[in-house]
Amino acid sequence: MNETVRNIWLALALDYAIGDPQWLPHPVRVIGNAAQLLEAPARGVSKNETLAGIMTAGTIIVGTGLTTWAVLRTGRKISNSLGNLASIWVLYSSFALRDLADHARAVFSELEKGNLVQARFCFSRMVGRDTNSLDEAGVVRAAVESVAENSVDGVLAPLIFAFFFGPIGAMVYKAINTLDSTFGYRNAKYLHFGWASARIDDLANLIPARISPFLIAVGSLLTGNRFGKALWIGFRDARKHKSPNSGFPEASFAGALGVRLGGPLFRKGKLDETPELGDSTVTLKRRHILTTITLMFATTLVAALVGSWVRARLERGWK
């Protein structure tokens, strides 16, 4: 097995085993903190907010790539084993499979106990939308939507970048995604400053999002969900979404589960009329949270198998 492919599988296994414990230093938190520290100096250098945002995003992306390269190179110089360990750690840090699953399971667990207030609190840690007014159906819908949407930027996209560009590519993608999470808001403060961060993230997710319906459909086949609907509704409803990319995984999950996602929600007290995705073949229940998690795992497995095959074929071609 190719070294990079082997390290990706080991990193996925590590993520599945331990997730993202808070006590363990995580590069994404470092990247986020660095981006926030650069904001004020960048705004000081240029009064043009868009230009200041471009400088900040460029510095973080290039800096992440160079830092990751230096860490991997240093490890290789010391020993091949240390270099592999560094590669696995970088790759592991770029995946959020277990973390997504754990947050969603926590919501399900509290609902099973009949503790709606605590379920809302657990869900509030996953998203930026308001949760205080959600009833149980709203919490279930929102948890399913969150896992579906984040299956791309939390797992599939970094996995695709890892197979094509190695650990440096995976970590650069996480830097791009973190910049969007930090600055990509349509509010007075970040509408212009966060423009570059949001557009670069859209570009980075362009291909992974459009590949996701195929991967989710095969994952649906493995888990006994709706293969055809995942593919059909994934492409039928994706462009209803305000995001150029988020609609693809959300609509595909909706099709696979036979449910309708989307609809009105509140963000910071303001009503956001998000479009409805999917057909309401069945009513959303608590169990759909667990079904969504299982489908995410199956889709990740499919993506890893396809990525390994593509990488092997490309390397044979390179030789």
What does this entry look like structurally?
This protein is mainly alpha-helical and 319 residues long. The protein has one domain (3-318). It is 74% helix and 5% strand. It has a two-stranded antiparallel ribbon with strand order 1-2. α3 (49-78) runs antiparallel to α4 (80-94) and α6 packs parallel to α7 (136-183). The longest helix is centred in the middle third of the chain and has 48 residues, at 136-183. The mean pLDDT is 92.
In short:
Helices cover 74% and strands 5% of the residues. The chain has 11 helices and 2 strands; from the N terminus they run ααααααααααββα. The relative contact order is 0.13.
Distance between termini? 16 Å
pLDDT below 50 for ≥5 consecutive residues: which ranges?
A: none
Which structural class should the secondary elements be placed in? mainly alpha
Strand content: under 5%
What Rg is obtained from the alpha carbons, in whole angstroms?
Answer: 20 Å
Number of domains: 1
SSE layout:
Layout: H1 3-18, H2 27-45, H3 49-78, H4 80-94, H5 97-112, H6 116-124, H7 136-183, H8 195-223, H9 227-237, H10 247-257, E1 261-267, E2 270-277, H11 287-318
Antiparallel strand pairs: 1-2
